[in-house]
Amino acid sequence: MSKRGMVETRAGSEKARRRRSSLIGRMARYWQLVPGSAWMILFLITPLLMMIYVSFWTQTSYDIKPVLTLDNWQAFFTQSVYYSALWNTIRVWLIVLTATFVIAVPVAIYIGLFVRSNTVQTVLLVLAIIPFWTSFLVRIVAWKPMLGQHGALNILLMKAHLVTEPLSFLLYTEVGMIIGMIQIYLVFVVGPVTFMLSRIDPSVIEAARDLGAGTGRIFKDILLPLSRPGLVTGAIFVSVLVLGEFATPASLSGRKVNLLGNVIVTQVGSLKWAFASVAGVVLTVVIALVIVGLLRITDLRKEV
Amino acid sequence: MAYDLELSHVAKVFENGTVAVDDFNLQVDKGEFIALLGPSGCGKTTTLRMIGGFEDPTGGTIAIRGRVVNDLPPERRPTSMIFQSYALFPHMNVRQNIEYGLVVKKVPQKERRARADDIMEKLDLTGIADGAFDGLSGGQRQRVALARGLVVEPDILLLDEPLGALDADLRKRIQTELRYLQKSLGITFVFVTHAQSEALAMADRIVVMNNGRIEQVAEPEVLYTRPRTGFVARFIGRNSIIVGTITARDGDIATLHTEFGPLRGRLVEEDLPVGSSVDFVIPSEVMELYPEASAQDPAVRDMYGGNVLLGKIRAETVVGSLVVYEVDICETITVELESHVDKYGRAFAAGTPVCVTWLPSDGHVVSA
Amino acid sequence: MATVAAGAAQVEPGGAPGQPLLQVRNVTQCYGDKVVLRNVDLDVCAGEYVTVLGPSGSGKSVLLRLIAGFEDPTEGEIDIGGRNMVGVPAHLRNVGLVFQNFALFPHLKVGDNIAYGLRNRAYNRLSAGAADRKVDEMLELVGLEGLKDRRVNQISGGQRQRVALARTLATDPQIVLLDEPLGALDANLRASMKVELRKLQTRLGATFVHVTGNEEEALAMADRIIVLERGQIAQFDAPEKVFARPKTAHVAFALSRFNLVGGRVEGGAFVGDGFSFPMPPGESAAAGPATYCVGYDRVDVEEIGTPLPEGYSSIVCKHVSHEYSGATVTYLFDLPDGQHFEAQYHLHHRKAKRLEGGTDYLLWWPANKAFVYLEVME
After folding, report:
1. Which of A81, A120, B277, C135 has the greatest number of C-beta atoms within 10 Å?
2. Nearest residue of chain C to residue B358 (CA atoms)
3. Do B318 and C332 touch (CB under 8 A)?
4. Could you tell me if B263 and B365 are in contact, meaning their C-beta atoms sit under 8 angstroms apart?
5. pLDDT tens for each residue of B291-350
6. Contacts of residue B54 in chain A, CB cutoff 8 Å?
7. pTM value?
8. Residue C289, pLDDT score
9. Chain A 110-149, CB below 8 Å of chain B: which residues?
10. Is residue A64 classed exposed, middle or buried when 0-12, 13-18 and 19+ CB atoms within 10 A define those classes?
């Protein structure tokens, strides 16, 4: 860099050099956009358009033809297998989202505000992440011996004399699936919310107390608004992951609960690309709507 | 009449056994401006936080206008705290910050607005009331914090290093403003600082603290002219200190044995007996410089009661009309002497041999 | 212009004594339409300690960045050791900059911070052993022996300041630039660092350019002070000369040791709302808006009715409060029109007074120690 600067100083006038370098600077700004744009076009825009296009192709039992038709879409919204999957997906998403928040926010408040030592904070967060050191599938499968009729949970409940006979609705039911999902996705809320809370100057909370605010008011007026970017980030993580789920329902609900993700998997499995595409488009739209809705709550770019 | 604030035998021992504050006694009248001054870790902030209710004392009582408040949480005490970081609510604009205390107390909106407007006018914040405070300067943020604390009309305003986060050039201005404000509002202010210049400039009385204990409570002038302990003398002003032992007493004038021979000074506490180890405190502005030869002059020796030390100017620093001389005495200690440029002209440049003198009544003898 | 060709890589340390080491020639710096420096011209000799005093926004930090080479001026020339440096990048100018916030590398140890420049500079790079010896030498110079293996976040503010200084000095720069070096330190530390910094400079015989917003630093430390006012040099002279006769009302304001009273010159006198002073001898008597200026320490406070000595100007005004600051006491007064007026008593010189708040007193000062500027402060 410096060498070039010097050679040019030797060669020509100062001003010319500066003009040239500023022109290069302006051009460089646009060139910097190229790799990112190319990536987006190749791996996001094109596949998306492709998927929308394929969803209108004609699907027969063994074949698919690029003849445009509305049949797939009609089928999706008239056959209960499909539209109930959509409804299930939304219902499960809402339940899991609410449950993770109810559990994660108090945990985050504890770690972010009440644990004063940075080391302990880090240790606790790492503990929350430890399950992620194993593969996703292992984590799901590990829930089976926990939830089964003779599983760990039932043994504990029996020992504690809370139930007289093993609970049978824990495994291969929606309940089991939801328990699994909550555990898996909890950390995605705990992490960002803890981070936001730990950044709050403790004297801001003391100032609110000093001005007469009790615990409830401080939560509502200070903690909630100041951790909002964390809450939204967590909500986006959980929503995107839950809405796209297929493995947990397949494993823990004993295929009793069908989500959009499972529909796509089965359709792709039986080579019904057009149906899979319809479900894919619907899922993409749902996720996009959820993200847009969440982002309306807060401008992440401004706040973080 | 009850004091505005009264602390009796207040103590704070932390769970790990550290004694932060020990047997703290103080009575504050309404409208006083009190400074808690001391080095970091001396317990001044802990004391302030106990008054505000953010720490529970482990002994003693804190009373505000005659009512013991030990068991009241901060939100129910008639105090407002101004935090060093200002602790403004970052998600609220200036007006929302200021009105917060009133919103919490369910003051009707109309009255809320009026009171906030009133305080904002007093603090010259009217123009920025509805702005976010992202663009505000340090001085403005500090005024917003003050307005937020004052609008709830506390009996006592507590300030934790209120000027600490400002740059040095703003400090002097705000210092004067704060003093004007306090006098015009007539509210009791208790503020914590480690900078003696702030305490001396603003406070009616200063509480000098060291290791959790009070060293001296006095007006700035008294603290400066009559320090009670060696610690105060070292902490306040620009004093030179020579250690010695009392060998004789004549009224409030003591003769000391020091490594520089016999010296004479005024006893601050009259009950120090002959034989006590003492600190001899010589303020920088009481010393006079003479050419080296004057040390032999009996008239000079007589006039200064034998307080004549030989030395050599180590450095001369001129700051406007002020000159600071550092003088090495017998190559063992360095004393600092402050003067006005008009007094000696430039007669004493670095390297000049001199003698340093002061009147016995201008040097303070305090217990070591 | 083309003399840079010889290669900035061989800039030898120091310049001929007495010769200007740094010359800023007619430098103007604009950001878009905003002119932050206008026609700045100055010479700094080798071995000088120069302070640049100005309020924020006066362009003082920009001037420093131009000399350091982080920016190039819109117009004009900057010569170091007789060589035009415009277009030469910062790391080839042999100039050291100490940042206000110290800008230490938080992930490196103290020793590695100091060695950083020695191991990475473009020329005269030192071997690990030589760099290590140099680091020890620097640590001793700034009084931080034994802290070599400490992490930067384990040391105090004052120590960080010294590490920053050592890191800069280690590369033997021709000119050491300091951007508000004491700004981040607390008051007590400031006082001691002030003395130490000056001693260090004298010992090294290095050339220091020190930017500050604090007039006490500027006055106490400098061989010469540059007072910047809205991007222009208002005065450039020895501190005692600047203090004895500030060239403009803004310079007097920047020194914060002068009463500045707004009013106008009328019929050979300075007239304000409810008061009037005779023109100080030798001042221009052209009529118009003006500022009257007299040092705080020139003012005496007396009881009303005390006879006024020959050659003194006086005013009656109301005492508001006083501020004690050790060896000096400042008495604050309000003029009849609400402007502030201060009298400062240095206790070595005059005995302190007991004044009643809210009472009127007679203030006087030698007429020939006052100035009138034909300009008005906003």
Report:
1. C135
2. C348
3. no
4. no
5. 998 888 999 999 998 999 999 998 888 888 888 898 999 878 888 888 888 888 878 888
6. 206, 209-210
7. 0.75
8. 92
9. none
10. middle
